[in-house]
Amino acid sequence: MKPALLLAFVAPCLVTAGYAAWAGSVEDAALKSWNQATAAKYLDSREIWWQGWDKSQRDHKTVCVSCHTVLPYALSRPSLRGALGEQVPSGPEHIMLNNVLRRVTLWNQVEPFYHNGEYGPTKTPESRGTESVLNALILATYDAQKNHLTDITRSAFDAAWTLQIKSGDQAGAWIWLNFHNAPWESNESQYYGAALAAIAVGKAPDQYRDDPKIQENLRLLRGYLRREYANQPLINKIYLLWASARLPGLLNSGERRALLATILSKQQPDGGWSLTDLGEWKRQDKTALETRSDGYATGLTIVALEQSGLARNLPQAKRGLTWLAQNQNQGEGLWPAWSLNKKRDPSTDIGHFMNDAATGFAVLALENSH
Q1: Among positive and negative, which fits the CA dihedral 253, 145, 53, 104?
Q2: How far is CA 254 from CA 171, 186, 261, 279, 307, in A?
Q3: For the segment 19-45, what is each residue's pLDDT rounded down to a tens digit?
Q4: pLDDT digits over 208-228, tens only?
């Protein structure tokens, strides 16, 4: 190659490389702009409120475990410990964990979250099935930090497997709470619950997924998740992508590629994702759905991409992380999200439920990115 031609070729490459390095440094700086301390303060304050709320109280001095506030808290709060220099769980975290341990220990004595009758004819089995999966997931998350599966967590899994549906069209899943409140307690939520169970098994240390005693349960679970996959809203498929990271046999390579393409096609111009785009929703009060990027959809999507190993080479994932870092409410510590069911007053405690989920998953995504 002639010197002039060589220079003409190299110069644009140097410019491109220089721009990429500059852009990367800008993004890296942006990723450090969020406030971990205020995020922890928000999460703790909401958990304290939940623990004291009259409607969350249950028998034996326990509280129910919610998908919007308690579960995201349990999944994300431990990830902040190192950055904040904490040696032990925070006070609210300790109380939350002890609450779950108490309900698992007293499983045959505690009442279900909801009884048949007032809330519908199937609320007792719905409550039991839902709680059993959430308990197993929370305890497996904490055991994973110590690299040891405790006996009480095995008990939680045992309770869940006992309640797994063994025959019929829903074989492999659990009867799930349905109050017609999307996205966690509605018609499509049974699949979400089964995906959470798969995530729990994948998280559990000591190679729990290889335990001979649960192989038939896993066969049923995989069968359900694969059988019903095509009919699911995108949000459920994102949870399955997360589950597939540590539990083989949930997605084949073609499904994985197609799912990734669909997920990336939903990314907003600002780098985030909107919950409205992850399913077909209609609010009960007929108000228009929010179409802006939100912390829950963006955080969940990034977590799934990170856990599945796809995020590390995706510029779209870096843009999503940058959106999260730049869209924390610095004053309150939270990330915003909006109800799929009705237009809620964001200043109320119930109006904060979606923010609770958004903040938990945003923190998990950002902390996992290190």
Answers
A1: positive
A2: 25, 29, 11, 21, 18
A3: 344 345 445 666 778 999 999 999 999
A4: 999 999 999 999 999 999 999
Give me 161's structure tokens: 């497997």
Query: Of 138, 130, 149, which is closest to residue 210 (Cα–Cα)?
Result: 149
Q: What are the start-end ranges of the H helices in the chain?
A: 3-31, 36-52, 70-76, 81-84, 91-105, 123-146, 151-163, 189-203, 215-227, 234-244, 253-265, 295-307, 315-326, 353-368
CA distance 52 to 254: 47
- In Å, how far from its chain's centre is CA 261? 20
Rounded to 5 degrees, φ, ψ at 320 are -65, -40
Which ranges of 53-122 does DSSP label H, i.e. alpha helix?
70-76, 81-84, 91-105
Residue at token pair 């959106």? 323
Reference 177, options 190, 160, 163, 158; nearest CA is 190
Which helix (H) or strand (E) segment holds residue 63: the answer is strand 62-63
Instruction: Write down the pLDDT at residue 118.
Output: 85
Residue 276 carries which DSSP code?
A: G
Residue reference for tokens 């829903």? 170
Would you call the peptide bond into 183 cis, given omega within 30 degrees of 0 as the criterion? Answer: yes
Q: Which residues pair with 83 in a beta bridge?
A: none
> How many other β-carbons are positioned within 10 Å of the β-carbon of residue 28?
13
Q: Distance (Å, rounded) from C-alpha 266 to C-alpha 248? A: 26
CA–CA gap between residue 90 and residue 78 (Å, rounded)? 9
C-beta separation of 176 from 186 below 8 A: no
Place of tokens 């108000």: 287
pLDDT at 180 over 60: yes
The full length of the chain comes to 370
CB distance 93 to 78 below 8 Å: yes
**What percent of the chain lies above the pLDDT cut of 90?**
89
DSSP code per residue over 138-182: HHHHHHHHHT---HHHHHHHHHHHHHS--SSTTTTS-----SSBT
